[in-house]
Amino acid sequence: MFEILDKKELAKNEVMYRIKAPHVAKKVQPGQFVIVRAFPTGERIPLTPANWDRDEGWIELMTFIRGKTTLRMANELKVGDSIMDIAGPLGNPTPMKKFGKILAIGLIAGIIEVYPIAKAWQKVGNDVTSIHVTPKAMAILKDEFEASVSRHIIEGFDVQPDWGMNDVSREVVRRATAKVKELLDSEHFDFVFIVGPAGGEKAVFNVVKEYGIPMEADLHSIMVDGTGMCGACRVTVGGEVKFSCIDGPGFDAYQVDWDELIHRTGFYAPMEKKAMEYYLKALKEDGGEQ
Ligand SMILES: Cc1cc2nc3c(=O)[nH]c(=O)nc-3n(C[C@H](O)[C@H](O)[C@H](O)COP(=O)(O)OP(=O)(O)OC[C@H]3O[C@@H](n4cnc5c(N)ncnc54)[C@H](O)[C@@H]3O)c2cc1C
Ligand code: FES
Question: Is residue 28 part of a domain?
């Protein structure tokens, strides 16, 4: 059991949990993630330590409330409670080498994963420009990026009252592709990195490849065990079967089979929608489930 030391609402639908987890804090590197099972009856989800303190033994996880598990965590967990299980650190650390001038892009909550990596890249001597494409109300980590990288750009927009998630996603793609094109037209970059939903990553990759710049993407495949055993996170990279959890999560964007990834990440959408409906119904009727 892992005690929640602090919990904060960072922005609309975004929550930070500082959690005592010395086994993760001791070893975690930028680019790695953990698999969290917050409740005995709950799903396992991958999250990224954004900050950690090796001596004090805590990590900070930040969640964008997307569906049942992240909403249930926000509703039911408070300071002093415990998270049932945290496995990790998992996945491969991002290579900490000198690329030169890096463009690091976070689409909506993807910025959480970009943060520790961009900070570490700048520290080893790269010149990092970060971009956060997001609804304005969900802009997070602004001060932290400004203190850590050469330049931080928030490409924010207002969400119209009649917009659903699909409209928000479309606007994120429109803004991200336009901003990246504008930057690549006016400046030289040696390397591009992106984290976000697969559809947005693919759209940005289609812009970047026109300039022939090396690009890496952290893939948001569905993960269950995080150890290469269940097969849930299977992706095709360079024509070979890979598992995001043990071979990634970062891959060469030029080698990823994007259409397969997009298809596989949407596979459970009807079940995820049902789970959310049942949870909201249970909340209304008896204050939630245990
Ligand atoms: C390596 C990695 C690191 C991540 N780090 C963060 C982070 O730091 N903060 C954050 O907010 N989000 C992060 N995510 C995404 C996060 O795991 C999903 O938002 C979360 O699982 C949603 O669960 P839910 O029950 O709230 O939503 P659901 O309604 O169950 O799902 C909503 C969407 O979330 C994604 N998702 C759902 N379950 C999983 C799963 N088991 N594995 C991967 N994706 C899933 C799918 O795209 C799905 O359509 C990360 C994903 C990966 C792969
Ligand atoms: S999450 Fe099971 S194989 Fe990667």
Answer: yes
